[in-house]
Amino acid sequence: MDVAPNDIRPIEGKKLADWAVLTDGTRVRIDFVGADGALNRVVLPFDMLGSLLMTLPRMLQAALDTRFSDGSLRFVQQLGGWHVERAEARGSLILRLSTRDGFEVAFVLNSRDADALGTALMAAPNLEPSDVRRPN
To answer: How far apart are CA 86 and CA 97, in angstroms?
Structure first.
């Protein structure tokens, strides 16, 4: 682990232990086991949790790019399901993508983006196993 400045004590996490939404729904508690075996707890406000969600994919990709300098690896998940629903905003859709283990993310699509996505999916080639560069 990289050394932090002297006034910051890093806590190296080993595994996620538990999490919970706190009573009013404005904060989330995350418990993890540290490398020393001690249980650590972090409480984050909802807005910060959203910022973390948006940052984590970039962090994962940056770590892969550092480990594998050719840039060919991507952190991906197997699609478990998808759902399209109308958004309250006129002419918009909500596209939800999920994995089998419960990860879910949702995107709002305006009609132009929905049309472009549909066109791209229709034009996507059928990939044969030999077309895959690396297993993930």
So the answer is: 15
